[in-house]
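Ticket closed. Logging final result for 2-succinyl-5-enolpyruvyl-6-hydroxy-3-cyclohexene-1-carboxylate synthase.
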Amino acid sequence: MNPATALATVLVDELLRCGMTDAVLAPGSRSAPLALALHAAEQEGRVRLHVRVDERSASFLALGMAKRSGRPVALTCTSGTAAANFHPAVIEAHESNVPLVLLTADRPPELRDTGANQTIDQVKLYGTAARWSCEVGVPENRPGMVAYWRSLVSRAWGLALAPDPGPVHLNVAFREPLIPDGDSSWCEPLDGDATGAWTKVRAATPGSVLHVPPTRRGVLVVGDGASNVKRYVAAASMAGWPVLAEPNGNARYGDHALSSHHFLLGMPEFMERHRPEVVVTLGKPGLSRPLLSMLRRAEEHIVLSPTLARWPDPVRSATQVAQDVEIPVVSGDDAWLKSWRSADLAAASAVDAVLDAVPEVTEPRLARDLVSALPGGSLLFTAASMPIRDLDQVMRPRRGIRIMANRGASGIDGLVSTAMGAALVHSGRSYALLGDLAFLHDQNGLILGPAERRPDLALVVVNNRGGGIFSLLPQAALTGPFERVFGTPQDVDLEHVAAAHRLPYRRLEAAADLPKAIAGEGLRIVEARTDRESNAVLHAEMRKAAQRAVRELLAR
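Final structure:
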């Protein structure tokens, strides 16, 4: 099956699973895959297809059906000005809260601005009149595309209905061939969830709450930007679920919080025995590939999101999305939780032993010990690359601190200034854990006029003379170009940087000296020098030690 046919088949099928009963088509060449998929669905008795030769008439026909039924109607056309002729009806749908799903076929992006026939810029063509716009992307025959397409359609359908009904726009680019080629094979099944749409979107109405399926074998995942954390952590604890919290989710506290789930989830033999029946996600997880892999394989993955305009589902595995959920208390023993906690304790103890065996300053031990040493009420701001990942792997559960990171886009820019801004409005002591490149990238954040307030902030800078995270990625095997284009070594004297800004400076010489090094008040810099290659070796030793300890536990 060619990619165009596969994409169109899946898009139409998922719209039908969501509840589409009517579709309107204005014929054209580039939209042929969608037209054929809709026609096939009509022949199967799954949809009522309405064909109109004029796009403007077609769009208002769809508007009338959707306005009367209150159910989204799919509206399809070819590329170019055909899509532009939908605009008046889209505006009316926007202003009168009528749900429409616009499927505009498009030429592939490489033809834009080349003078290619019937090719215009259709990205966000309807501007603010569309509740949501998305360029689907040119289909490719590779695993993962079906989940992406179905999740995308589910999101579009949900957003067309709630919380503010209106038109949504999917721009669908097709490369030739545009008609079926007789080959029915594809690299993965095109079928979706047989029980319904890929993702069920639960819009909040007064008093509405999604009730999580009752089970003792559940897991709560807390990522960046999570809200109402205490409420849901308490509910998960009552249900006997382990809590897998990223540091900046600020839910790593209490008896149910784990600290070594990164290592546990990377072990197939552990996951075979600990596959959850339901996973509830708060915030945006994304620090750990093993965690994302668990979400990808979850049987029931409920995403809690305060807004249905965007919900965090990077692996396209959400089965339900809601603005509020209730985790029920279920009777039964606590064998599920005990098993997770025993494995977590074994892994954490093994990792601690590896870290404590090295008296020199190392990056993961610095992260672990820094969190442990902070006084209650402290704020810790971390860089979004290696420091936050080190915390994720080695931070032990504790209460009384707030952890922040710029994980919205995970950029390296502006981190000194962000940390200073947070410190200026925080009521307690403030600290930042940054890499050398992140620190140097925002040196200008240290420039303060004489009348400006100085934050009480200790900037702890891990100086490994370059981009340390790349030494843990596949790029490290590229020994030729690696150092120049990934490691990006630098040789800036951070003590001189501190002196240039008249800031107190200390160098952390030994791991045990951390409490003394971070002591003090006002804006100050603490430098911890490490080695990138040694850090990569240490991380490998941590992983091996953790997994060895868990395997020994499972073998008992």
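The chain has a mean pLDDT of 92. No further action required.
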